[in-house]
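Incident log, structure service

09:12 report received: a user says their structure output differs between two submissions of the same chain.
09:20 pulled the input from the user's history:
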Amino acid sequence: MPPTRRVSPPMPPTRRALLGTLGAAALTTVAAAPAHRTAASNPGGRPAAPAGGRGPSPAPGTPVPLRLPPPTGPWPVGTVALHLVDGSRPDPLLPAKPYRELMAGLWYPAEPCAGHPTAPWLPEAAAADWDAHSAPALGIPAGAADWRGIRTHARTGAPVARRAGRLPVVLFSSGDGGSRALGTTLVEELASRGHLVVTLDSTYEAEQVEFPGGRVERALPLPDDLTPEVIAALLAGHSRARIADARFVLGALDRLARGHRPDTATDLLPEGLAEAADPARTGVLGQSLGGSVAAQLAHDEPRVRAAADLDGALLGPVADSGLAKPFLLMASGTKTLRGEPSWASCWAASTGPRHALRLRDAAHGSYTDLQVLLPQLVRCLPVPDAAGLIGTVDPRRSLAAQRTAVAAFFGRYLTGRPTSFLDRPGDDWPELEVLR
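09:34 re-ran on a clean worker, output below:
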């Protein structure tokens, strides 16, 4: 269990945090607005203009349509969902289940292929569950937004782009309780720039995970008495489960690169995928708890070369022993290295290349797809504490700055692409500043 000195008292939770309970400055269910909140409790006002495109307002009673901004890299994007079963261990979160069952997504540069449909942001049953349970916890009434209609820009099952060559691998991990879909805007960007990105849901921790056939597994109920010590123990258990899941996936990728089909219930894999993955160039990216997992996995796992943490305080040994590998930390708002004890101790002990950036006027949820989805909603309906979730930073600028920083980091340390951006981001993006 991590020392409780790194855990700030939580707000009274009403449900699992969609954005992750492990914030950089406080351990709190940040996405769970208490039921008594109203639009009047939003002191920050409405966020800036939507980043997903401004369309006509819907007719009264019609769900608000939502769009994701397209990636900016040179490659079209393909994707495939994988149903993975690890029969070598019981489920760490539901021990009565004798095996671990996971859903993952692969995102990659693809051949232009209009014959393949674009993938949904969430599959249909998971989107319905999000609408019924997760959206209301954000202050968005069920049926108010067209979550089922959100499309990504990736073509399902499209062939891998042959000219992209061997692809560096990036594993993505969301915040505690969050769906892997919440990182889609960054994931698609990396794929469009030539990476194979693996997104992974943590079954029985994520709010909803849809398996083939429309079966949805929901998160296990949280204890009634969520003291800081109980929350710390829960997060430590979630972190251990995710690290074991990531190692299982790394093994599947190793086998895939050797020409062996991974142990998956998925019928077909995209053409060219087996030849594309380059596990020797693997990085990890995560938001909130996922960022802590990314750092710890890089610390423990020789197969991981670099880690990027999006606003996540650190759990586990990495907080005190640091990293000897490249590490990117992106903070939000007014957070500082010294202000978060786990960042300060990790920074002091690290011997590898390290970069710390802060996104001004951002909030913890700015590092999720809510940064571009919520501004589209607040034009049409009140979203309690929207600014508290995603800050007041311009959504377009926020997303573009994040995409640029994350792509520069993995481009530099996984592909050897020179860049000075990480050292002087303010030259192009005044929203970003270097933390010393």
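09:41 both user submissions now match this output. Likely a transient worker issue. Closing.
09:42 reviewer note: The CA atoms of residues 136 and 179 lie 16 Å apart. The two ends are 29 Å apart (CA to CA).
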